[in-house]
Amino acid sequence: QVHLVESGGGLVQAGGSLRLSCAASNDVYAMGWFRQAPGKERELVVAIDYNGDYTFYRDSVKGRFAISRYNANRTVLLQMNTLKPEDTAVYYCATSNQRATMLNGEYTYWGQGTQVTVSS
Fold it and tell me: How far apart are CA 111 and CA 91, in angstroms?
C-alpha cells in the first residue's frame, strides 16, 4: 500500500498563489492531482509520469498551474498561480500505474485531501 500525504492548501485571494505538495511512501509510476468542489464531481486536474516525460493539464488550468516531481524525495508539487474562485475545492494527490490509466482517471492510492479556498 502507498501512503500519500498532501500539504499546502489554504485560503488565498483571487490572483494569488499556492503550492501543494504530496509525499509518497513508495515509488509510483504516475502521480496526479484531483479536485472536488461542493456539489460537483471529482476531476483530474494535472498528472505527471515517473520521469516527467509526459504531463497532463486540464484546459482550465493551463498556463496557471505547473506540476513537477522529485523522485529522490518521492514528492510531487503543484504550483498554482493566478488562482480563481472556481479553483476552490478539496485537492487530492493520487497514484496511477500506467500512462493510459493516468489519463483516464484510474488511480489506486489517494491522499486525505487538502482544502484550497480562493476568495473573490
Answer: 9
Report how far residue 116's alpha carbon sits from residue 106's, in angstroms, rounded to the nearest whole number. Answer: 23
C-alpha separations of 50 from 47, 68, 70 in Å: 10, 10, 9
Distances (CA, A) of 10 to 6, 33, 90: 12, 16, 10
Give pLDDT, residue 20: 98
- Position of cell 485571494? 13
Q: What is the band of 60 on the pLDDT scale with cuts at 50, 70, 90? A: very high
Q: What's the CA gap between 57 and 46, in Å, rounded?
A: 5
Tens of pLDDT, residue by residue over 76-87, are 999 999 999 999
